[in-house]
Every structure is written in structure tokens, then in C-alpha cells.
């Protein structure tokens, strides 16, 4: 066995997903030296097997054992590649913690990531679902993604355009087993207008007694809001929002709003985005619990594992929630995490 990676058979995955549900991987590889990736993928025991790359597992739900190869990428390293008076090109490795990257950039006087503070997970997972929060998406500052392309067997650098990102969507999500992301490059400005329009940010800054906020203040405000509104996966298993906010036509949104004037509706590039949390809460699910599978009492969009729930129990609850929203509102919710 090469020193660049460690291969374990029938490995437990409980610690490798933030839902903390029991599951096992037929093979688990922890890789320290990324140059060994092509070799790892062509071993007799790994070739042609289903593949899953895991960071902190903050966006997956295991409903059963995984019969293929799980790769954990341990590579770390943030650096400044180029800078001029206006902006800076930053390189970060797939294994870096996302929130640490946000703070690393803020400490160097760079802005653009402040609204994305405290999102759980690693840098390598960020482009997959184009992480977004408080009115900002990764796509706005992403320059390139470095990856190993299994289809052509080569290392590649994808431009932002090639990543084809939209709301919680990218080329990596559409072709889930093709690329193994190893690093990203971001272009971050030294100064840019702050984005304070998302509900709650201005109020939070006021309660922090900040009259003229800078990017660091916004990061602190977003972190305070997230800590208050979202359950901490280190305390109670969860994967953040379990469903995407559904995007519907303007006409359908109008009809729904006429019937339910309190339904929050937001503009989206191709229609209107509805609040999935509101739809779920309106079906009475907020705070629901059956055995150890439940819906957070802080936020109706977050499914939680109170302790010993299995992934199958959580998935079964998710399907009941989806069916009830479909029945009451005629809207089909789509899960946000990868269901395995
Ligand atoms: N709402 C309810 N009930 C609840 C919670 C919220 O009716 O239990 C209503 C609120 O009144 C509000 C609306 O839903 O008007 C939106 O709530 P919130 O601001 O919490 O945002 P969200 O649309 O539920 C999205 C992202 C979050 C992100 C927040 C903040 C998705 C699927 N989720 O949630 O991302 O943190 O906006 O920008 O887009 C994640 O992806 O895991 C995640 C947490």
C-alpha cells in the first residue's frame, strides 16, 4: 500500500456525515497526497466501483451501506496567488474548512465571502452545490475549480462558466461521479458594496450596535443569525436545509400567494422562489419527532437526528413531508443533500 493513502475495508461512516447515522463503506481511502489519486482509482479493488468523495459529509444522508469506494481528501492549504490594488486571487485546497477560509480572507482585508460565514463543510464541497446564504452565492467570486476528471483520466481546471452554476446546482451535481475536486481559486475584491438586504442582517447589525458595518461585522452578524436559527450539527445531527426552495412560474406563484398571502416569495432568474420552510411549517411539521428522527423546532427546513435515528428513518420522514406539501400546495419539494 502506498503511503499517499490509507485504504480500509468495511469502514464505519458514522463520523463522516453530519447526520451521524450508522452506515459502512465497502472501502474507505484517506488520501494525503493528491498525486496518488489516479493510482488509487485504478487498483483492482477500486476500479469500476461506485465512488463518493466526502469532506465533512455535511450534505449527504446515508440510507444504507455504501458498496463502493469513499474517498476522504485531507489536502490543506490556503494561499494568495496574485494581487493588485483592487483584487486578490486566492487558492484553497479541497480539505480546508470553509468557514476557516472565510475568516482567513477577511483577516487579509478581502471581502466577498462574509455572507457565507459559518456554512458547514469543506472547500471541495462548496462548488458542488454552489453554496449560498444571505443573498450571496459562491458563483459570484469563484474563478476556477481544479479537479481530476475520471472520464478522461486527466487533471483539469474548470472555469466558472464551465462549472455552469445556478441556485444549489452545478455541473458537479449533474454528473456526480465524474470529477474529484481538489482545489478552488477565488477572486476577492479589497472593497465592494456590502450585501445587507437579506432579511435579518440589518436588524442583527443594529442589535450589535454597529452603525457603519464592514465585511467583518457582516460576517459576525451572519454567524450570530445562523447560530440562533440553525441547529449545530456538532450538537444535533443534521445537514442544514433538507429541501431546496422550489422555483415555480410567476403565474403559479401568484395563484399560491392569492390563496396564502403570508407565503414568502422571492425573485429568481427563471420564475419565483418559494420558502420551503414556510410550506413545511404550514403542514404542521415544525418540531415534529418520531423516535429519533425529527424536524428542528428552530427551522422547519432542517431535519434532525435526535440520537439514534437511521438514515432510512430520516429519509422516510422526508418523504412524508414531501408528500404532505405536494398534497396541500401541489408543489414537489426536492431534497438538497445527496441521498445515498
Ligand atoms: N420560515 C418559516 N418557518 C421556519 C423557518 C423559516 O416559515 O421554520 C420562513 C421565514 O419566515 C422566512 C423564510 O422562511 O421568510 C426564509 O427563511 P430563512 O431566511 O431561514 O432561509 P431559507 O430559505 O429557509 C435558505 C438556505 C439556507 C441559508 C438561508 C439564509 C436553501 C435551501 N436554504 O434557507 O441554506 O442559510 O437561506 O440565506 O436555499 C443550507 O443550504 O443548508 C442552508 C442552511
What would a concise description of this structure say?
The protein is of the alpha+beta class and 340 residues long. It has helices at 37-41, 98-107, 160-163, 171-174, 201-207, 215-229, 250-259, 276-282, 311-329; strands at residues 5-12, 24-31, 51-54, 60-61, 66-73, 78-83, 87-93, 132-133, 136-137, 142-149, 154-159, 179-189, 237-241, 247-248, 265-268, 271-274, 289-290, 293-295, 302-305, 338-339.
Question: Secondary-structure map with pairings?
Answer:
Elements (H helix, E strand, L loop, with lengths): L4 E8 L11 E8 L5 H5 L9 E4 L5 E2 L4 E8 L4 E6 L3 E7 L4 H10 L24 E2 L2 E2 L4 E8 L4 E6 H4 L7 H4 L4 E11 L11 H7 L7 H15 L7 E5 L5 E2 L1 H10 L5 E4 L2 E4 L1 H7 L6 E2 L2 E3 L6 E4 L5 H19 L8 E2 L1
Parallel strand pairs: 2-5, 3-5, 4-20
Antiparallel strand pairs: 1-2, 6-7, 7-12, 8-9, 10-11, 10-12, 13-19, 14-16, 15-16, 17-18, 18-19
The protein binds uridine-diphosphate-2(N-acetylglucosaminyl) butyric acid.
Uridine-diphosphate-2(N-acetylglucosaminyl) butyric acid binds next to strand 13 and helix 8.
Task: State the main characteristics.
about 350 residues; alpha+beta; Uridine Diphospho-n-acetylenolpyruvylglucosamine Reductase, domain 2; Uridine Diphospho-n-acetylenolpyruvylglucosamine Reductase, domain 3; Uridine Diphospho-n-acetylenolpyruvylglucosamine Reductase, domain 1; 9 helices; 20 strands; about 30% strand; globular
